[in-house]
Amino acid sequence: MTTCRECRDQLSAYREGELDDPLRKALDAHLAGCAECRAQLAELEQMIRQMKGLPPIPVPADFRSRVWQRIEKESGFQRLRRAILEPWYLKLPVEALATAAVVLLVVQVVRVTGPEKMATAPPLQEAYEQEVSKMEEKAAAKEAQNLQEFRKREATLKEAVPADVMDTAAGLAAPAARRSQGVDVSSMRAPLVFRLYAPDPDAARDAVKVFIVEKLKGNFEKTENSNPFLFQISADRLNELRDGLFEFGSFEQVFESGTGEDSVYILIEILPERDSQLW
Amino acid sequence: MSNPSEGEDLLSDEALVRRAQRGDKTAFDDLIRRYEQRVITVAYRWVGQHEDALDLAQETFFRAYRAISGFRAEATFRTWLYQILINLARNRRRWYARHHISRTVSWDQPAGEDPDAPPLGEQVADPAPDPRARAEAAGFGERVRRTLEEIPAEMKSVVILRDMEERTYEEIARILKQPVGTVKSRLHRGRALLKEALETEK
Description:
The complex is a heterodimer of chains A (279) and B (202). Chain A is of the alpha/beta class.
């Protein structure tokens, strides 16, 4: 015996001919004797027909030129980004350990104790702006050179980031391996891990780089800083950085580094969105 | 929704994509031309607002352009474009929160200050052949625009793609990276929710 409620739950599948035989026959029988449910079916039909009949939205005459404007605007910025950013960023050579789609960025951040220390840092904004305009001009020519430089620095990564942190990062980046081997992060200095599920991981990686340099730009030029992977950053900045990552996709903070040291390693793992639990 | 006036559309999407990957902007421009109406329409179905829909569509093509060199022919260009669009749409609240907030007019609401003015959509859309059908579509369009907002994203995407865009189950499954069975059950659930919401909304 089919109730009206059961019948209505199945109407759409019934209408599509997707019910198996016994269920379809039960609905046939119910509909034959229930005018109310027949009316519901007719309403459903009408709704579907009306949805199919919705007119397409007209395209503004300048739509394509708007898209191109957006693209051109970004292109200058992308060149700039490559000129100033690539040397600092590390695509860790852990893809072999991780799933193919995983992308990693590691930034080592020097944790400063509070805003008063930040305040003693020289005002770098102006210098930065000047530097940026100079670099923008040379950006295209520098691209190839920077790529080489980037590769060299990539090779020195293992010196810049302590081995136990690297191991932890590699373990985190390989969920399958982590599950099977049970990487024990409690005994290691774990990086601060953000996991980002993005529709387009490659694009997200670029966007995250741009975003991070925006967040760190006031901190990037430390004369005493011989390590290109070190940034001074306040706790507030760190929080801003984290909050900003929400923009790029579904996001979770996997776990917090328990280290009491003066530096913290940030690892941003970018995964294709289909792996997200949130979908 | 290819434009019938474009008799020169001889190249396949695949050929245009390959050219675009080699940096041929004309080829990408052709791809935009081919899909702009689809993308704008789906964006509008999703966000229900004209300017936001155009922003979303613009962002979709921008992301596609930026990522096209990495595009592998595992999916068709169209499927891929829908994927980008749906993912942006699903994340758009966060995206808009960062970039700008814009509350703008609907195609189906009166344009401008004058409450008696015809809806914007009627001012610019191609007139439907039958005025009564057109009026009905406008009224329904406005109601469905409001009620779709209440439908959870995973069902909303299926209802839009299946019932408004008339994509096949298989293509929707590829776009959403979900099994066909999941797509079907989301469609049925989504329709039921929408129907219920439309009734409450009346």
